[in-house]
Design a protein that fits this description.
Helix content is 36%, strand content 20%. The chain has helices at 17-30, 43-72, 108-136, 142-148, 219-224, 268-272, 282-292, 298-312, and strands at residues 6-8, 33-37, 88-95, 154-162, 174-177, 183-188, 195-199, 202-205, 213-217, 234-236, 244-252, 258-259, 280-281. Residues 153-253 form the Fe2OG dioxygenase domain.
Amino acid sequence: MENFPVINLQSLNGEGRKATMEKIKDACENWGFFELVSHGIPTEFLDTVERLTKEHYKQCLEQRFKELVASKGLEGVRTEVKDMDWESTFHLRHLPQSNISEVPDLKDEYRNVMKEFALKLEKLAEQLLDLLCENLGLEQGYLKKAFYGTNGPTFGTKVSNYPPCPNPDLIKGLRAHTDAGGLILLFQDDKVSGLQLLKDGEWVDVPPMRHSIVINLGDQLEVITNGKYKSAEHRVIAQTDGTRMSIASFYNPGSDAVIYPAPTLVEKEAEEKNQVYPKFVFEDYMKLYAGVKFEAKEPRFEAMKAVEIKASFGLGPVISPA
């Protein structure tokens, strides 16, 4: 198996640009994941994000997680647990409107740092979308515009901690899934591993690297590229030692954005064979995804295609609101 793709963004400036763009292209086409170094977010700032996230978990969430585990009897399980994940999480929303000021138990310093982190990640996400446009032969700004909707993109962060697990073979840190949205930017623990992606039928470790940002592609980019780029199935394996920190930020389409394959990326052959991805409103996809997140993505695409066909005959929506 070839090495997991690690991309130095600084090498875009200068003679290494062509090779770096080729590396990004290969990662998008064959992995759905890559790891960024020299991405422009200062290392001292990332150290502060990590310190405050770990302090917040210790002070506010660790005991709650232990109580949850005890109440559900998870430490003594004898058979595989398929309806829960071994993770402690909370969510922050940045766009279209931030909720950081309303999230309980966050110290002011942590709130301010996470606001600043979101701005830096938003800028990085939009830079990456333009690099993807360049590789795909799309006009600059095409992907950002495709995500825009009425009120701009949706952008939020899931802050997770994966504590030591006594039975990692019976309960996953996070069950296998693809991400529903657009572009995911992950700042993860550099000491405790656990994230894996499925490539060519094998589970491959995403290597923990200090100060890196892991990028993965969501289902919406697979649709817009008509399958040229694919979202990759991934999971988190719980560990017996150490708590793994994971801060995943999701740069997604706006809820009312209409998602469909970019016309220039739909090859004539695909059209003739009816191998064109569906057209749908992002919010409708999310309603469907909510109930089937841990199942294969292909039936989701087929279900959205059925909605599209039915709508074209004026028969109304197939999916009722959740």
